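Re: your question about Diguanylate cyclase/phosphodiesterase with extracellular sensor

S., sorry for the slow reply, the queue was backed up all week. Below is exactly what I fed in.
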Amino acid sequence: MKNLGIKSRVIFLGTIPALLFAIILVGYAITNIFGVLDQSLEDRGRVIASQLAPAAEYGVISGNSQVLQRLVQQALSNEQDLRTVMVVDSHGLTLALSGRELPKALIAEIAKENLEQIPQDKGIIFTFPIYRSLVEIDDFSNLSSKELELKKSYTPEKIGQVYIELSNQTLQNIKQDLIVKIFLTAIFGLALSGLLAWKLGRNITKPIQEIAQAVNRIGEGVFSHTIMENSSGELKTLQKGFNSMSSSLKHAYDGMQEKINDATSMLRHQAQHDDLTGLINRREFEVRLERCLKSVHENNAQHIFCFLDLDQFKLVNDTCGHSAGDELLKQVSILLANKMRERDTLARLGGDEFGLLLENCTLTDANQINNALLKTIRDYRFIHDDKIFNIGVSIGLVVINQGFENVSEIIHAADLACYSAKSAGRNQSFLFNPGDVEVVRQRSAVESISDITDEIDDEQFMLYCQPIVPLTSATTQLQHYEILLRKIDLDGKIILPTTFIPSAERYHLMPNIDRWVIKNVFLAYQKLLEINAEKCNYIFSINLSGTSLGDKSLLSFIQDMFIKYSIPPQSICFEITETAAIVNLKNTILLFSALRKLGCSFALDDFGSGMSSFTYLKNFDVDYLKIDGTFVKEMHINKIDHAMVRSIHSVAEAMSIKTVAEFVENEEILSELKSIGVHYGQGLYLGAPVTVKGLIERYAKLHAQ
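Result:
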């Protein structure tokens, strides 16, 4: 019933009463009619047997077998269903037989049990006794009273027995025919009832089925489906309600679909565009770049990829905050987009890096487009909070050809070209050429840091140190060394920091490297203290990169290292470059203040290289000024360099800051520095770099004696 439709249920419920009535009627008819037929057959057999018994009396008494034989034959021929008629005497001797002879055992059983009838498989055997009749002759005399008494008490004498076998085949045929007729009548009645129920169910359920089908159509998403309002009463109300609901659903669906389409378009746009600038994002740009590379391999097409990196973005970001940096990126994006051709793709690849894909473009046209972009950015001035910034851009160009196997190779080549443009002076473009000396150098620099991870292997780097020698008797006679870093490649070759530091800074690997240096310098100093703490009068200067100065967690790391290795803070001096200090001005001041409270000292390296060195100097509480070596190495033959060294030393003296001159390469330079009064000198003439491990071993031998 659960799986039947409403129409089938109506038909089913309509035919069940008729079916039950038919079953009851058939059962009742068969039971009663069959009982009547069976009783009729029994009555008929008993009548035939009872009629034959008197008729056979004479023949039995007289012993006239011919008379008896004619009697039984006549009875067999007159009665259609008789199979056997047999007359026997009182001793069981057969006097007459018509039909098949009954078994003697069966006759003996009937006599023994005194049965009147016994059923068989194909009929019924009936028996009736033959009695001698009492003959009354009224014509001779009247009977006396004694004779009358004898007459009343007279018991007839049994002189024989009649057996008949009545076949039930005709009765069975009648029954079968009757059953067929009854069942045909019942089936016809059921069919008629089913037809009436079907018509009734169709009229009742057709509107409901139409509504159900319409509901299924709505479930399939066809909200515009309606039905005919051709019923009456409650069904018509239901039809009207459904059409009203369908109309409301269609209206709501249309509104919902419109919102879904808008949301899908927005999500697709967000998946393909940068949230800040609205330009194509890196993921979508790489898809288009992949498509262009495929066209190069299949159709020998030519495309140009340009990698753009803003030159002064970090200065704006660190000076005015990230909101100013975001505004700068928006404005620059608009400036660049206005210079694009319709078929070109401009994307923001991340940070202050942009990608420009010039499809089906010659190198000549690409150079013209890039020159226009360089001029646009060069002429642009970014203003924020009354501060004006000149923004430049460095561009790396790559001709996409069949030499590239994948997109990563193209982007990497453009990145190398862009970095070469920056190294060449910024705000210019550089075309990638695999054999170009500058490209080869940049590739080597990148490859030199490719094995640096978050967990630096101690076998990758080695610490060196170079002495910082006092030049005047007034300076403290402590053993001051600057810690220098060297990288060891896979072949055991020593790589100088000028080769890998720029790339490490660019790819934000310097914070990890600086932390490795700090930890290992502290560990080395701990070994010196373990050898002889009383005689240990070293000061180690550790260089910090600009990216480390922007790491707010660096202070807690240094504090943890002091606690872990129990190093006196007075033995550690941190060196930072003037440029790094200016770019990270706020963080640098906070770091200086916190570490100075512990007892650390500070040195400002490469002083004098910036345009506003003396202006920024008053913002830093430093202990040492390391004069830029470009002024020192020719000061004995160049009056301007000599004047610069003298002026830097004079300002430092006025601020009670010790000066350190780098690149002291000969006696003439040393003599000039001493005449000016520079406090310390550092260079190959005063002492070449040695390994920190060698310094520790020498210290151990010195104090082992």
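The chain has a mean pLDDT of 82. The two ends are 108 Å apart (CA to CA).

Happy to talk it through on Thursday.
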